[in-house]
Amino acid sequence: FNNKRASVRIRESIMRSRQWLLILLTPLLVGVIAYSQLGVLYGLAAIAAIYLLACIYLISRWSEAKDTGTAYKRYLDQLLFGLESSPQSILFTTAEGNIAYANGNFCELIGLGGNDLTGKNLRDYRDIGVPDTLFDDVGETIAKGEEWHGELFFEKAPPSGKHTLTTCRPIFNEDNEFVFVLTLIDDISDEKVFTQRLYMNAHYDAVTGLPNRSHSIEKLEQATLAAKSRESFFSLVYINLDRFKLLNDSLGHNEGDQVLNQIAGRLRNTVHSNDLVSNLGGDKFMVLLQNQRDEDAVRSVVAIRKAIAEPVDVSGQELSLSASIGLTTFPDDAKNAPDLLRNAESAMYHAREQGGDGFYRYRHEVDNRAASRLAMESHLRYAIDRDELHLAYQPVISLEQNELVGAEALLRWRNRELDNPTPDMFIPIAEETGLILPIGDWVLEQACLQAVEWRRLNPNFVMAVNICAKQFEKGHILNAVEHALSVSGLPPHCLELEVTERLLMGNDSLTKNLLYRLKDMNVRLALDDFGTGYASLSYLKQYPFDLLKIDRSFIADCQESEQSRQLVLAIVSMAHSLGMKVIGEGVERLEQRRLLKDVECDMAQGYLFTPAITADRFTSWADQYQQLQIN
Questions:
Q1: Percent of residues, the chain, with pLDDT higher than 70
Q2: Top-level CATH class of 86-192?
Q3: Which of 41, 233, 512, 524 can pair with 496 through a Cys bridge, CB separation 3.0 to 4.6 Å?
Q4: Which one of 3.40.50.150, 3.40.50.12280, 3.50.50.60, 3.20.20.450 gives the CATH number of domain 383-630?
Q5: pLDDT digit string (tens) for 313-338?
Q6: Based on C-alpha coordinates, what's the Rg of the chain?
């Protein structure tokens, strides 16, 4: 390359010598011709004129060359300014790796900002910031005369390294000889961080940092394919924390997130590092136990239960948790990922149906129950539109006056395909899926409309309707009650809302506020199934209840058990001291009715009077009951 450049300079010198020789000889030749033809005077004049023109020509050429040089220098300055101002890092090296030019961005990229690298060899900086890839993979590609394009990480770039998109292009001279390498480097660190954030949001749970449901299913499918190819096995554990929603609603969502985060950490620490721990949504977790089945898998589940049961510290408060756990194995229980996950979930539901705080190994009959549950949920979504729901009514009798004073509305579902599911079968599903909200609104409205018709029997006839915790969320119950009273025209004091003790657990301020607002509307409030829930007796004076309903379990053996009789007496006395009336539930025998009257219980309901019956039969029964009392 240097020889070529020298030969070019020699050719340029020869050309300039010829130009000067021509300028010197041309005036002499013209002067000799003029002298021979016109004489001495004209010959000298011609020589002078030609030299003058030559001088003018030379001056103009010199001026032009000077202008061209200035413009060229200005062009080079502008080009250099552009290279230095470029957002790209630009590197120009010889084929041997000597740096011919490196802009400031490149110097900063390798942690040598402000240095002049011209004349240095690029390999001198291999250990202080230039990635090895630039010499290995890139060098091999460039040596073949091909362009290299890919990502490189410069670890020395401030503040903590930079991800780049790098292009290395070989440059050839006019003889097609490889002489230079042009390297253009774009900083893509921000794009990389943004892409990583998008990936994390799409694949990982924000609260626990575990793989989310979609990513978990993807990994489960990969594990299934890998196990098939290796003819190996693994177990799948499905975990659902017991009563977490109640805890979440009582303590607050921030504290609930703390609990989930702690449980996620415990699960990761309990299983092996190559096992997959993921979050399927909220309080549901999945653990994939690699190469485990039977006794090994059961030991892992026992360890998981023990880890979950350890007290959780939330805002200085210790809480005890339990979980319902389902266990299934590939390929014993399913041949693909969706069926395996469904079977594990079915086993978990079976464990929860047994009261929670335990685990269940998947069996085929559990799958049948899960299918039935799914079918029930599907039908329940259309129960109102298909006119399958109806209300049955159980009368409430005053023990003092022995007369009908009200009724409790009880939900029933006619569905022949599902063999008419009982309330204890479909109401928990309605609460879990949120279907209880439209169903509960329908029940309130229908019960209020019916109560208006029956007020002819007793102007103070009271209609009781059961309300669940889900209806208290976001104040839904207030709008539902206002709508039902408005549509029906029923006076508020003729509507009684029954809640269970479970609603009071945690002494939630929102629940208390809603109960007081309902009381301000003049709606009656009753605490149902008293004695079987979680509420402290001290809660009774904190809530505006009008009635207590003694659970049927206390009434059933109150004749045979003196302890039950004393408990009933204590409940009645306590309620009266707090200004509340009392209703005894599940009265089936005359002896039970007499005992309740003896302890001054106010009202009773049960099979002794009649089971829950339809509205038309209730009207007939009420007329007959009134006639019997008159006679």
A1: 81
A2: alpha beta
A3: 524
A4: 3.20.20.450
A5: 887 778 888 999 999 999 988 889 99
A6: 46
Q: How far apart are CA 611 and CA 591, in angstroms?
A: 18
Over range 397-422, report the average pLDDT. 92
The most confident of the ranges 55-59, 267-271, 316-320 is 267-271
Tens-place pLDDT, residues 156-183: 777 777 888 888 888 888 888 888 888 8
Burial of 439 (0-12, 13-18, 19+ CB in 10 A): buried
Q: Which CATH class is domain 208-362?
A: alpha beta
User: Is pLDDT above 70 for 22?
Assistant: no
What pLDDT, on the 0 to 100 scale, is given for residue 357?
87
Same fold, 86-192 and 383-630: no
Place of tokens 């996950």: 341
What are the C-alpha distances in Å from 108 to residues 89, 92, 114, 170, 190? 9, 16, 8, 24, 17
Among 469, 463, 431, CA closest to 447: 463
5 pLDDT more than 50: no
What is the rounded CA–CA span in Å between residue 164 and residue 151? 6
Which residue, 445, 448, 446, 442, is CA-closest to 430?
A: 442
| DSSP character string of 324-343 | EEEEEEETTT-SSHHHHHHH
Domain boundaries, the chain: 2-83, 86-192, 208-362, 383-630
CA distance 260 to 510: 23
- Cα 111 to Cα 89: distance, rounded to the nearest angstrom: 13
Residue with tokens 């040598």, as numbered in its chain: 112
The reply to whether omega before 159 is within 30° of 0 (cis) is: yes
d(CA 296, CA 497): 51
Sequence length of the chain is 631
Q: How many CA atoms lie within 13 A of 615 on its CB side?
A: 15
Query: DSSP assignment of 129-175, as one string?
Result: TS-GGGTTHHHHHHHTT--EEEEEEETTSTTT-EEEEEEEEEEE-TT
3-state secondary structure of 602: coil
Burial code (b: 16+ CB inside 10 Å, e: under 16) for 167-177 equals ebebeeeeeee
